[in-house]
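Next comes this protein:
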Amino acid sequence: MKVLIIPEDFVNDEHILQPVIEAMMKAKNKKNAKVRVCKDPRLQGVSQALKWENIEKIIDRYRMIDLFLLCIDRDGVETRKERLNNIEQKASEMLPEGKLFLAENAWQEVEVWILAGHKKLPTEWKWEEIREEINPKEVYFEPFAKQRNLLSEPGKGRKTLGREAARNYRRIRRLCPEVADIEERII
C-alpha cells in the first residue's frame, strides 16, 4: 500500500504526521505500507490545502498512490470539517476503485497529537484544557519542546517528539478521536 500524506505545510508537520501515520498503518496490520509526505507541490497554509484545484493536481500527479490523507489543523474553525468532507467527496468521485482519499482536521492542531503521545507532560496541564485550547501549539507544544531543549532541531522539536509520540500510538488514538476516525476508515 502506498500512502501520501498531504499536510497544510510539510516543513514542520511532516515530523508529526509521518511517524504517527506509519504507526497507524502498523496498527492496521499494514506493516509494509510505504508512507510519504507530499512535498511537491508544497502547500503553504490551510487555505492552499483547502483549494480543490490544488488537491486535484496532487491526485493527478500521484496516481500510483493507494491512500491519500489530507491532514490539516482545525484552528478553532467550526466549519473546517465540512470543507474537508466536500473535498473528500470530490476526490472519491475522481479516484478509480480501490483508491481512497480521506480528509481530517486535528483538534486543534497536529501538535496536540504529539502531546497525546507523551505520558510525562507537566503535571499542572489538564488534557481537557489542551484539547480545548485554540492555540495549543503556542500554549502547550512550544513550552514542552523548550523544556526538552529541542527548539533548535528540525521542526523545532517536532522531529524527536513526533517519533517519541508515535511509539505511544494507541494513546494518541485514545486521546484524539480524529486519529481513531482516520484509522477506522482505512480499508
In short: The mean pLDDT is 97. The first helix runs from residue 10 to 27.
